[in-house]
Design brief:
The structure is a homodimer of 131-residue chains. The first copy, chain A, is α+β, with helices and mostly antiparallel strands. Helix content of chain A is 32%, strand content 35%. Chain A has 3 helices and 9 strands; from the N terminus they run H-E-E-E-E-H-E-E-E-E-E-H. In chain A, strand 5 and strand 6 form a beta hairpin. The N and C termini of chain A lie far apart (39 Å).
């Protein structure tokens, strides 16, 4: 069992890694600050390039699949819709492997969406296509 | 002389107040997290509504005018340009009076831009026009 503090630190490290990835590919990107209340903000990252603006939920896993609570995905979708932004999930798998998938296309189950290392786009493809 | 910590707390309080103002008017808005390095991020707030996305630098003053360093304004402008966002300055004057001005239109001096309570748009006008 990984402690809450350790998991949080890993999450922030992954967000920073992803901000750097965006920067390397010519995007601006920022991490969203925790809100004052205990409520989790609806997105972890905002990235933009030439007017395309993405709201990104960032996840980390040591397994082959990551399950993201439907509630969280739906909050991201509604945040993005209200703002007119694109909603994406970005999942970091072991050894720095990232997968990117539009939140709306992620595979829905009863209470979560499931992202595997075969889903969505890998980094190279994502950044080549998403220019 | 106001201490650094006190000034920072006032800055964050103003950012939260502005996030609430955006929310009340149907925008999504988030505070930008401090970057890992000591470097200040290029914007304090990102606000979006129906695809219009603003990068906002937030300032507070107890005086009649606020001077913002040119370097800071230019970083905001270049961040916004790269992302394809609109760059705005939002200055909070005493008694909760906000003024909003596009960063590009703020009055330039040798080392700073100057925003007075007569410059740009007041809250009501800003939120009525900017829909």
């Amino acid at each position: 069992m990984v402690s809450h503090a350790r998991r949080k630190a890993k999450g922030i490290a992954a967000e920073r890694e992803l901000v750097s990835l965006f920067h390397e590919h010519g995007w601006v990107a920022i991490r969203v600050a925790a809100s004052g209340a205990s409520r989790k903000p609806a997105a972890d990252l905002i990235a933009a390039r030439l007017g395309r603006v993405l709201a990104v939920e960032v996840k980390v896993t040591r397994d082959d699949a990551k399950y993201v609570r439907l509630e969280e995905v739906d909050e991201l979708l509604s945040f993005a819709e209200q703002g007119g932004l694109e909603a994406w999930l970005a999942v970091r798998f072991p050894r720095g492997v990232w997968r990117f998938i539009p939140a709306r296309l992620a595979s829905r189950r009863e209470k979560s969406v499931r992202v595997t290392r075969e889903d969505g786009l890998e980094s190279e493809v994502f950044f080549e296509r998403e220019v």
